[in-house]
Design brief:
Elements lengths: L4 E3 L1 H9 L3 E4 L2 H6 L4 H15 L3 E8 L2 E4 L3 H9 L4 E3 L1 H9 L4 E3 L1 H10 L4 E3 L10 H4 L4 H8 L3 E4 L8 H10 L4 E4 L18 E3 L2 H14 L5 E4 L10 H17 L7 H12 L3 H24 L2
Parallel strand pairs: 1-4, 2-3, 2-7, 5-6, 7-8, 8-11, 9-10, 9-11
Antiparallel strand pairs: 3-4, 3-6
Helix pairs in contact: 3-4, 3-13, 6-8, 10-13, 11-12
This protein binds pseudouridine-5'-monophosphate and manganese (II) ion.
């Protein structure tokens, strides 16, 4: 059986010319941000990549086709569609096989990037171990994927709604290199620093690219997680966010929100409770991650 894969015109040309390509996910568009800021952000991030000399490949499943790169009209349609499926590793093949439409999480985007020969992927924050995971067992499939699929993922850390120490413990157990870019602590998504020491620190894209290539040469499965701090001018202090996150978590528990709905529910509540500041910060950090991902992708094609 062949894989129904559709490349955007821009990505097809980049593949033919061997240009640097950076994958982008689509769950952040459909489940992570409200319309119209979701589509506006997706366009800005794509342009940030182009401005650095890389080519954007936003990934989604539309009508049973795995799209590597979306045409502008497709991006618009996805950004406004209602009830789009959220696709992780478990859902991807079934959605394609049955002609469905869905947005790819970090895990599913990594799988698609790997199929398309793309080595670098930029997102906002990965999923991880949820608070209360000791009873709910809610651990994002993103962590397992990082242990399996050889893509370098650039993020601003794991989303701060999560249990961050447990998230990074699991990544250590899974053998995933966690690299902090330009600082000694792991960034905490909306906040630049944390009290978690970074397992690895790198200060330039060439080092990150060389480590990616060394892992490939050694035949190691899995990718690298690059954690890139949000620019200082855009961050929200952890002390400001802590009570807001606590309130959102309490509401999620009271309303018995579970499984895939947890992360979108919490992001939406935090958006409302911060009067939109969380979204402004989220947009800034994704754009910052795209710029770094472009530099790494350019190093890899040198
Ligand atoms: N980063 C963001 N916003 C998001 C996400 C990432 O800034 O909405 C999405 C990613 O697609 C990630 C998903 O894979 O949230 C995690 O969902 P879960 O916790 O259900 O695995
Ligand atoms: Mn989950």
């Amino acid at each position: 059986m062949s894989l129904p894969i559709t490349y955007s015109a821009e990505v097809a040309e980049a593949r033919a010319k061997g240009l640097a390509i950076v994958a982008l996910e689509s769950t952040i568009i459909t489940h992570g941000m409200p319309f119209p800021q979701n589509v506006e952000t997706a366009r800005l991030v794509e342009q940030d990549l182009r401005d650095q000399g890389a080519v954007p490949a936003t990934i989604a499943v539309m009508n049973g086709q795995l799209h590597i790169g979306l045409e502008p009209a497709e991006l618009d349609a996805l950004g406004q569609a209602q009830n789009v499926a959220k696709l992780s590793r478990a859902d991807l093949a079934a959605c394609i096989a049955t002609g469905g439409t869905g947005a790819t999480t970090v895990a599913a985007t990594m799988i698609a990037a790997q199929l398309a020969g793309i080595h670098v992927f930029a997102t906002g924050g990965i999923g991880g171990v949820h608070q209360g995971a000791e009873t709910s067992f809610d651990i994002s499939a993103d962590l397992q994927e990082l242990a399996l699929t050889p893509v370098t993922v650039v993020c601003a850390g794991a989303k701060a709604i999560l249990d961050l120490p447990k998230t990074f413990e699991v990544l250590e157990t899974l053998g995933v290199p966690v690299i902090a870019y330009g600082q000694d602590t792991i960034p905490a998504f909306w906040s630049a620093a944390s009290n978690m020491p970074a397992p690895l620190r790198m200060d330039d894209a060439a080092q990150i690219a060389a480590s990616h290539q060394m892992r490939v040469a050694m035949g190691l499965s899995g990718g690298q997680l690059v954690t890139n701090p949000i620019p200082a001018s855009d961050e929200i202090a952890a002390e400001v966010l802590a009570p807001i996150i606590a309130q959102a978590l309490a509401e999620a528990e009271a309303q018995k929100i579970s499984a895939k709905a947890v992360t979108p529910f919490l992001l939406d509540r935090i958006f409302t409770l911060t009067e939109g500041r969380s979204l402004t910060a989220n947009i800034a950090l994704v754009r910052n991650n795209a710029r770094l991902a472009a530099k790494i992708a350019l190093e890899l094609v040198k």
